[in-house]
Amino acid sequence: MTTESGERASDSTGSTDSTGDETGFEASYLDRVADRLEHSYDLDRDRRIREESFELYGHLLIEHRKQFFHPSITYADHGSHEHLFVRHTPSVRRDDLERQVELGHTLAEEWIDPDETHYGTEFTFVLIADEITESARGFVDGFRDRTLIKLGFHGHYEVNLVVVAPDDRDIVESKNADVETVFAPWRDPEPESLFDRFVGRLKP
User: How far is CA 92 from the centre of its chain?
Assistant: First the structure.
């Protein structure tokens, strides 16, 4: 999907709001996920953004800078952001996933300052469920939603989806989500740093 975007107004990234007590298993799983994320992301617990509550929110900023002979002379400066939203829901339906996609586009309108220094922004939504239904799996598997801003002159943004059922050791993620190693610890006990993975994806 390619759309041309006009000027966008930036907004705050939400406010803190408690979502209530977590079950013992959920808290343990989230703690393990947070341990894997904390070296790459700035993390917040119990974040409310618009009408959605998230048990965990993470933000990663990578600044790219090229220098010309001397560090004081730079060019082609640009930045990339990744926003990660994690919440628990007993079951995941298609309309739950569509609501996350819609939220991602809304946040893109509000949070991105579109100019030549913006390279890309990713909004990745992770839903922790009791099980992964076939409808949820079918929606997420192969899903991709990438939008060019000003035909790419002001970068792009992408919405990613992940559904994970830790009890069943089951996970499905959209094409470019790239967070499986964090949310599926049973597959990779010592995952590569997400920072390194994200930087690697930005290299030509």
Answer: 18
**What residue spans of 17-146 are helical by DSSP H?**
24-37, 94-111, 134-140
Q: What is the pTM of this model?
A: 0.78
Amino acid at 184: A
- pLDDT, one tens digit per residue, over 40-59 is 899 999 999 998 999 999 99
Distance of alpha carbon 104 from alpha carbon 122, whole angstroms = 9
Q: Is 51 helix (H, G, I), strand (E, B) or coil?
A: coil
Given a contact cutoff of 8 angstroms between Cβ atoms, the answer to whether 172 and 137 are in contact is yes
- What count of residues does the chain have? 204
Summarised one tens digit per residue, pLDDT across range 7-40 is 333 333 444 443 444 555 567 899 999 999 998 8
Q: Look at the block and give the residue holding tokens 């050791």.
A: 169
Across 75-103, b (16+ Cβ under 10 Å) vs e yields: eeebbbbbbbbbbbeeebeeebbeebbeb
Cβ neighbours, 10 Å, residue 6: 8
Alpha carbon distance, N-terminus to C-terminus of the chain: 22
* Dihedral over Cα of 62, 63, 64, 68: its sign: negative
